[in-house]
Write a structure and sequence with these properties.
Blueprint (H helix, E strand, L loop, with lengths): L15 H18 L1 H8 L2 H15 L7 H15 L1 H16 L5 H18 L3 H11 L12 H40 L7 H15 L2 H11 L2
Helix pairs in contact: 3-4, 3-8, 5-6, 6-8, 7-8, 8-9
């Protein structure tokens, strides 16, 4: 079977509209390539995936559920949490831009508003002040004037702090089980039996009886 040849050529055009459509396609492909970074930086994904990882470590099942399952669950919960913001972006930015009602600069500026509002809602003032002071710039007159270079890192460390606070609360009941099992084995003189091996079934039983995944996801959703 002969191998087909592929040729790639770049030619001129006399219709400016074709150039505009090509630029739009290039911009959309660039944005799609940055989606993972944008997802981690400006959405609730960081908090959710860290909390789910804490759950897995608290139960001492380091490989169950697998990383793919944890990330997929965090991704779909993120889409659920961010749905109102995405609907605003779709109605006010994406649709008008695709219909030619907004320029590229206007679309980028329009997308900044809803995303900044979401991040400001969950960013602590001391974290925001830290990066404002470190940047050496002028103090913003209003929340809308906070630059993204300041807001994004402040939002991320605020999300990490919230996730760690939730993780501590998750670890406490399982830590109690570990302490009880370790004390029982020590009192029985079973020094060679690892406490983690004995406590794992009890932690899994507690998690299942309490409907742990339901409670964890409910707590995550209520934190937003």
């Amino acid at each position: 079977m002969p191998i087909p040849s592929i040729e790639f050529t770049v030619g001129g055009t006399g219709a400016p509209l074709e150039v505009v459509e090509s630029v739009r396609l290039l911009v959309m492909l660039t944005i799609l390539s940055l989606v993972p970074a944008i997802l981690i930086m400006v959405t609730s994904f960081t908090r959710i995936v860290v909390v789910l990882s804490f759950v897995r470590n608290a139960i001492s099942t380091n490989a169950i559920p697998p990383n793919q399952v944890v990330v997929a669950l965090a991704l779909f919960i993120t889409l659920f949490v961010m749905a109102p913001t995405f609907r605003v972006l779709q109605a006010e930015v994406i649709t008008p831009y695709m219909e030619g009602e907004l320029t590229q600069d206007e679309a980028l500026e329009g997308a900044r508003g809803p995303i900044s509002q979401f991040m400001l809602r969950y960013t602590r003032e001391n974290d925001l002040a830290l990066f404002i002071n470190a940047s050496g710039g002028e103090r913003p007159d209003s929340p809308a004037d906070v630059p993204l270079t300041v807001l994004i890192p402040a939002f991320m460390i605020s999300e990490l702090k919230t996730a760690f606070q939730m993780g501590i609360m998750l670890f406490v009941p399982f830590l109690v089980i570990d302490m009880v099992v370790a004390s029982t084995l020590l009192s029985m003189g079973m020094f060679m039996l690892p406490p983690g091996t004995v406590s794992l079934p009890f932690k899994l039983l507690l998690f299942v009886l309490a409907d742990g995944w339901h409670l964890v996801v409910k707590s995550i959703l209520e934190s937003f």
